[in-house]
Amino acid sequence: MTTLNENQLIAARHVDGPMMVLAGPGSGKTAVIVARAAILCKERDILVITYSKAAAREMERRFSGADLQGGKSRVTFGTFHSVLYRILRRKKGLAIGEILAEGEQRAIVRDCLAEMQYEPDDEMLSSLLSEMSLVRNELYEICHYHSKTIGTGDFLEVCKIYENYKIEKNKIDFDDMLCHAYELLKSDPVELDYWRKKYPFIMVDEFQDINCVQYEAIKLLAAPKNNLFIVGDDDQSIYRFRGSRPEFLLNFPKDFDNSRQITLETNYRSTDAIIKYSNNLIVHNKMRYSKDISGMGQKGSAPKIIVSDDQNQEALKIAEMVRGLWKKGANLDEIAIAFRLNIQARAFTDAFLNMNIPFKSRDESPTIYEHWIAKDFFAFLNIAKRLGLGQKAGFDPDAARIINKPYRFISKAFLQNCKKNDKSIFTEYKRSPMLHIATKTHIEDLHRNLLILAKLESSGENVSESIRYIRQNIGYNGHIIDTSEYRKLNPAGLMEIADELQEAAKQFEDFAKFSKHAENIASVALYQNIESPCCTFTTLHSAKGLEFERVFIAGLVEEVLPYIRSKTAAEIEEERRLFYVGVTRAKNELYLSTIKSRYDKPAKPSRFLNIDPPIEVCLANSNHPPERGDCDTSGLERINWCRNNL
Fold first, then answer.
1. Phi then psi for 362, rounded to 5 degrees?
2. Which of 141, 521, 91 lies closest to 347, judged by CA?
3. CB burial class (10 A; 0-12, 13-18, 19+) of residue 349?
4. Per-residue pLDDT at 626 exceeds 60
5. What global pTM score does this model have?
6. CA 190 from chain center: how many Å?
7. What is the distance between the alpha carbons of residues 182 and 195, in angstroms, rounded to a whole number?
8. Could you tell me if 499 and 323 are in contact, meaning their C-beta atoms sit under 8 angstroms apart?
9. Nearest to 335 by CA among 317, 319, 355
10. N or C, which end of the chain is more exposed by having fewer CB within 10 Å?
């Protein structure tokens, strides 16, 4: 207790009634929760809820190390899922085997989508499962929800099949744990009374991440005495897509009369310069509690801007800077590369692999080369290469994959006949009675374009130009649009995948090398479990709760951060909070990276860079870390000057 500051002590000593603790970044909130649990547990039973198993274990570890005279057994640490599962298990006798494993969950939905003629990749599955989870956690009527991943009718059908599967197998998933427990507490007063008596005092960490069903369950458990102690930061509410939003924190005083409030405003993590920058960033949000975060008097240097031509050069420049820092003795474990979108990891993966810099990824997502669009591009390029070499072959699965992309009215019967007889599509079509003359003309056009594609590669052009030809001349962009219309999706996301693959291909003049590179990327998985020091790649969403000596935030341009789909004031504020989370991960050094163009189109610096405190603009060569004398200070005007002159 002697190490707590004044506001931390006030919070830790609070006993009866509701209390809200607004905890800024690096403000020692875990110490407050552990200290309060140590005070209360001598006479009371306490439930402490947080959002991850790791956080719960860390709190329990620190609590177990406290010097207590008994009372330790009166505190229960757990996640929302573990606590509400315990409630369900007591009433319904659930066993671990009745919980649907994530792999089984994904397999069910994947099979549903395949039967509906979708080509579900891991990203699509994750998006759809996230939406299915959101509907239940927000207690929505499913018939009123419009999916952004697949058509509304298809979404309803997938949900129906999925729910029927669980009923048939007598299983529940992780969302059911929350929803079923809430329904039980709401409908069974005897059970509710049992749990209220068992845990008369409740503490909830990371309250800004709470969703609707969790909040409703907690309100039931805490009533009527409302000994509810919540800790959170509305400025770090970044999971709206999961149902979390700052309104739960903002409305807490209305939901709980006579609640007390204290703010932890001392940041023990970052330098004063980084804190000043973050304060001046987040103050532009309107829907928030006002705070005055300060540091410990460690001045530090201002954030540094890195300006690059495009995302490939950006990744190369940052990789060179990281390598320079590493050679000077920096610990790679204390360096992070953060970005808004998973797709941005591609350029950094390529650059770090090429430069043999160890790294690991916080986000378990497939590489872009596993996407079905990438597989289509590789199929086009494979066929073109074989045709260019004059190789004679029988049935070609690559040709079958792309023959109707875009749609050319080639029937399944014709393709099955070619496969059965091991015949080439590009020779068999001429004599096939199954095909209309117009269809044969389409195949002739494709064959001619594939031969042109083969010549394009042999001419020395980089592979990016071949992909451009596939998209524009062969008509693959039209296929993306047709597919999106059929699925009732916005084509922008699929076009971005194609753009990123085209960007990646700029580094290769030979398709064989590009193909080999794509195969080698699979070896990235080997980096995930290495024990030696390595740099961390993370999306801004996955970065919350982490801290590093040095943080690089990449791709700070409009349409990336803030994201192009964020239009409303509330959505822009969430994007600003996301940037704020990234900024406040840095202890000592913060690098903000912007680019002049993205996918061969001019890019504008993110509006979030246009704030009052000075930013140091790196004028150093990219082959060594910037020193203090390599930088100058100014705002967005200076950034624009650098972009025009570097």
1. -75, -20
2. 521
3. buried
4. no
5. 0.86
6. 41
7. 12
8. no
9. 319
10. N
